[in-house]
Structure formats: structure tokens, C-alpha cells
Amino acid sequence: EYKIQILVVILCGVIIAFLYATIKLGKQLSRDSIRMADFTKKLHIRFFHDLRDDIKDLENYGKKINAGDDKEKIILKEEMFKKFVESMQRYIDFISEYFSDYCGSTISACIKIIKLDKDNQDIDDIKNRRAITLVRSAATKRERSKNNEEVTVVKNSDFLFLCTGANVFYGKADLDQEYSKHQYNVEDDYDTWHSKYISTLITPIRYYNKHRRYTTNDNRIELDILGFLCIDSNKKQINWEEFDSHELQLMAIISDSLYTYMKRFKDIYIKGE
């Protein structure tokens, strides 16, 4: 009888623990569901909705530029570029805010673009072209901005890694370790970048036809890399190295979407098309 009582007490304890865990899990799933619904809404309103409108605005600028004289074209292009930067700033702030909340720490974000000047465009090999920081997330802009925001692709391991066409992202959780193995080198010296971040995740803003076999001659054209979407953290983000991480999947979606906007902008701004 004494043993039965003990068994009943243990069984009751197991049942209570199970019920507690079930209720806790249910609340967590409910919170996750609400959080995902809120994020989906923000993704639509703060990114895709605005992106659609920004692309449409480019069409209107294109018509005005084609119809204007030389002086009007200069003014319109300056106005178009200003709006382009403002739009990119909104997008990058959204990305930084969301990832900072998701990761539980401050995530810095930026967009680097392949420079649009004519001399840079004439360089055939993408690896030897220059890129410049177009926008940085507002929350970290002050401490992350540099006097010279221009970099040469070939001198930076992360950007160079993405220029072969075979790699869809560059993600490292421990850049100290990569640096010690001589596998991470950038134009900034160690003390400069190490004081700001130790993890990074980068996706190319590009066109890439994965169904086509490339020859050496047309590979450069088919890749059409316009820039890079970058996030980094001063804390180790282990999952940034994983192909199926939430951060990578979202960045890939945004990078591919930004390609359409940036490509249209480039065609109008440089070619007048």
C-alpha cells in the first residue's frame, strides 16, 4: 500500500510536469505564430509594398529623362538618385531592426553597390571592380561609417568569394578564427574590423541563371552582380554559417528582390533606357 502511494505521487508529478510543459509549449507556439504574422505584415508593408512603388517611380523618371534636355536630365538624375538612396535606407533599417530583434543583439546592416562610374564599368573582371557603401543602418551608422567607404572586390575575401557564381552566400560566425587561418582578409586592418564585428553574413545582389551552363566568356554577363547585402554582429552568430538559417533565407529573398529595383535604376541612370 505504501509503494502504491509513492507510485501515485510520482505519476501525479509526471502528469503535472507534462501538462505544464504542454501549456508552456502552447504559449510559445502562440507567441511564435503572432510574431511571424507580425513580421509577414511588416515585410509586405515596409519592403515589398514600397519596392513595388519605387520601381514604378523609376518608370516615370525614365520617361521624363528621355523627354528632357541635357540640363533637365542632370537635375532629374540627381533627384532620382536621392530617392533611390532614401528607399535603400528604409530597406536596410527594416532589415537591421528585424534581425536585431530576432537575434537578441544589435545587428548592423549595409548595402554595398558596384560603383556606377564609367571607368569602373569598363573593367571586364568583376573581381577588379570597386564597390562603395550606399547605405548603413541608422542604429549603427555613426560608429560604423568610415572616411573611405570604397573597397576593391579582389582585396576582400568575403566579396571575392561571391564573385565566382558558385556561392550563394558568405557566412562566418567566428572571423577571428578565419583570420588566424589566413582565410579572412579585408582592406581594413584587424583592429579596425575586429572592434566592430566578429560574425558576418553576406548575400550578392545579382542575376544568376542556375539552369544554364556558362562558358568563360559569358559568365561575367550572366552573373551581373550589382552589389552586396551585408549584416554583421559583435557576437558569435553560429547559425549564420548554415544554409537553411532564417537570416540567410530572408536575406536571399531581399537581395533577389533588390536586384530588380537596382537593375532598373542602373539602366535609366547610366544608359537612359
Salient structural properties:
single chain, 273 residues, alpha+beta, 6-stranded antiparallel beta sheet, globular
What's a quick, concise take on this entry?
This protein is an alpha+beta fold and 273 residues long. The chain is 57% helix and 14% strand. The protein has a six-stranded antiparallel β-sheet with strand order 3-2-1-6-5-4.
Unreliable stretches covering 5 or more consecutive residues:
214-221
| Largest sheet, strands/sense/barrel | 6 strands, antiparallel
In whole angstroms, the N-to-C terminal distance is: 91 Å
Order of secondary-structure elements = HHEHEHEHEHHEHEH
Radius of gyration over all CA atoms, rounded: 24 Å
Looking at the structure, what is the overall shape?
globular
Strand order of the largest sheet: 3-2-1-6-5-4
Beta-sheet strand percentage? Answer: 5-15%
Instruction: Specify the number of helices.
Output: 9
SS-based class = alpha+beta
Count of individual beta strands: 6
On the 0 to 100 scale, the average pLDDT is 84
Helix content: 55-70%
Molecular structure report:
The protein is an alpha+beta fold and 273 residues long. 57% of the residues lie in helices and 14% in strands. The protein is built from nine helices and six strands, in the order ααβαβαβαβααβαβα. The protein has helices at residues 2-67, 70-103, 118-121, 141-144, 157-161, 175-180, 190-194, 219-223, 246-271, and strands at 107-114, 130-136, 150-152, 170-172, 199-206, 225-233. A six-stranded antiparallel sheet has the order 3-2-1-6-5-4. Helix 1 (2-67) packs antiparallel against helix 2 (70-103) and helix 1 packs parallel to helix 9. The longest helix has 66 residues, at 2-67. The protein is globular and about 95 Å long. The termini are far apart. Residues 214-221 have low confidence and may be disordered.
